[in-house]
Amino acid sequence: MSVPNVVVHRDADVLAKAVAARIITRLVDVQSAKGSASIVLTGGTVGIATLAAIAATPARDAVDWRRLDIWWGDERFLPSGDKERNETGAREALLDRVDVDPERVHVMRGPDSGMTAEESAESYAAELARAARPEDHGPVPSFDVTLLGMGPDAHVASLFPGMPALYDTRSVVAVHGAPKPPPTRISLTLPAIQTSREVWVVAAGEEKSGAVRLALSDSGHVQVPASGARGRARTLFLLDRAAASKIPPELGRISSP
Ligand SMILES: O=C1O[C@H](COP(=O)(O)O)[C@@H](O)[C@H](O)[C@H]1O
């Protein structure tokens, strides 16, 4: 797994725009090299602001949206169209505004599918396994970019500190009793996240600064899930100044004005 690099931007607005530009560049590069690309989306404040920033820039046309597989790192177990679903936020901010291939938009199903949360997690795991190729060496495709928001408690996806999902070796799990509403969720596990070529953790605000510091330390993944958010080739912590304010000075970082 890769050692994280930290990039700090002035504020949450600049951060979202910078991450948007970075995503566009990465997807264009991967599509040029391989033909198609894959991305794992996140919910949360910066995650959705980033998607809106992609939609707002003309550079979005450089991406071939039909040659992109779109996955989610987690989903709130709510019916399709519910405002609190990460999918709904992503569709409103970006996916309804670009020419995606609906067959390549891989949503985590909610209760309106007739499935329980466990069945939905199993179904997503099966969808991932179908998409995996021999060179992935496992039941999860090697995502080109996994975008993860992070909570003040250092949760990523729907992996909350101390919860059983952090001991699970399957690729996707149902989460019950999440401390942040809604209590029932579906989440990739850390082993699934760690199959990604690149993992980018995005966070803004002073309330995230303690979690950022811990996530960059050797803290255990069970107490600090974000410390397990690592990509095989590259890990980036993309932060605003407030979120970066408790990072020890000896940890190298790149700042932008
Ligand atoms: O509930 C969730 O929260 C996190 C972080 O959200 P934020 O609003 O504090 O940025 C998000 O990454 C996750 O996908 C989501 O389900």
Count of separate structural domains: 1
Bound molecules: the ligand O=C1O[C@H](COP(=O)(O)O)[C@@H](O)[C@H](O)[C@H]1O
CATH architecture verdict: 3-Layer(aba) Sandwich
Strand order across the biggest sheet? 3-2-5-8-9-1-10
Function: Hydrolysis of 6-phosphogluconolactone to 6-phosphogluconate.
Enzyme class: hydrolase
Pfam family, one: Glucosamine_iso
Family: Belongs to the glucosamine/galactosamine-6-phosphate isomerase family. 6-phosphogluconolactonase subfamily.
Explain how this protein is built:
The protein has one domain (4-255): Rossmann fold (3-Layer(aba) Sandwich), CATH 3.40.50. It has helices at 12-34, 45-56, 86-93, 117-131, 190-193, 209-215, and strands spanning 4-9, 37-41, 68-72, 74-76, 145-149, 172-175, 185-188, 198-203, 234-240, 253-255. It is α/β, with parallel strands linked by helices. The longest helix has 23 residues, at 12-34. The two termini are 30 Å apart. Helix 6 (209-215) links the parallel strand 8 (198-203) and strand 9 (234-240). The strands form two sheets. Strands 3-2-5-8-9-1-10 form a seven-stranded parallel β-sheet. The protein has a three-stranded antiparallel β-sheet with strand order 4-7-6. Bound molecules: ligand LXAUTJHC. The site of ligand LXAUTJHC has 14 residues, from helix 2 and strand 5. InterPro entries: 6-phosphogluconolactonase_DevB, 6PGL, Glc/Gal-6P_isomerase, NagB/RpiA_transferase-like. This is 6-phosphogluconolactonase. It catalyses: 6-phospho-D-glucono-1,5-lactone + H2O = 6-phospho-D-gluconate + H(+). Residues 11-234 form the Glucosamine/galactosamine-6-phosphate isomerase domain.
